[in-house]
Amino acid sequence: MPFSPGRALRPPPGLSAVLSPAVAAALESSAAAPRASAHEKKAWELAMSPVKGFFMTGFMLWMSGSSVGIFSMMMTYMALSAPVSAMMNVSNVFKGLAKAAKLTTGKEPSFLLQKIAYLLLQCVALALGLWKLKSLGLLPTKLSDLFGHMNVRHPLHLVIPADLPAL
């Protein structure tokens, strides 16, 4: 019998064309497991990515010196603004990975632990910028830094001694 594109071929003898539900579920779960672990691994790589910038940022802050100048202020601003903006956009960082995981596995993971780790590492990066502000003397850390904001206490009573010599 010659092959024609319009005709469907019958399955060979002994092969069922329909898989049992148990076999289909086992095949699907075994195929989805490596993909899910790959997405988890990629999410952890994304979560640990701020560590790569710690040493560069710390070196740049150290090289900018301890005097208040334009270069040291620019480096300090960079060290403070980058972690803050990264903390604001934490959901956008993992959004593409979550979409890819949903396409391959069928469910969208939350990546909660990875997001928490990412936020904590961004807090460490923010602490580098705050350390630089403190070393420049721009962060109020002592009581004497706050004297301008304290209220002056006026006495309620004024005591003048009776035996005050006349001038």
Strand elements, count: 0
Distance between the termini: 136 Å
Quaternary structure state of the chains depicted: single chain
Strand content: under 5%
Low-confidence stretches: none
Residue share in helices?
A: 55-70%
Tertiary shape: elongated
Radius of gyration: 33 Å
Question: Helical segment tally?
Answer: 5
Strand count, sense and closure of the main sheet?
Answer: none
One letter per element, helices H and strands E, the order comes to HHHHH
Could you tell me the mean pLDDT? 84
Class inferred from helices and paired strands: mainly alpha
Protein name: ER membrane protein complex subunit 4
InterPro entries: TMEM85/Emc4
Subcellular location: Endoplasmic reticulum membrane
Keywords: Endoplasmic reticulum, Membrane, Transmembrane, Transmembrane helix
Structural write-up:
By secondary structure, the protein is mostly helical. The protein has a domain at 31-138. The protein has five helices and no strands. It has helices spanning 21-47, 51-63, 70-88, 90-105, 112-136. Helix 1 runs antiparallel to helix 4 (90-105), helix 1 packs parallel to helix 5 and helix 2 runs parallel beside helix 5. The termini are far apart. 11% of the residues are buried. The mean pLDDT is 84.
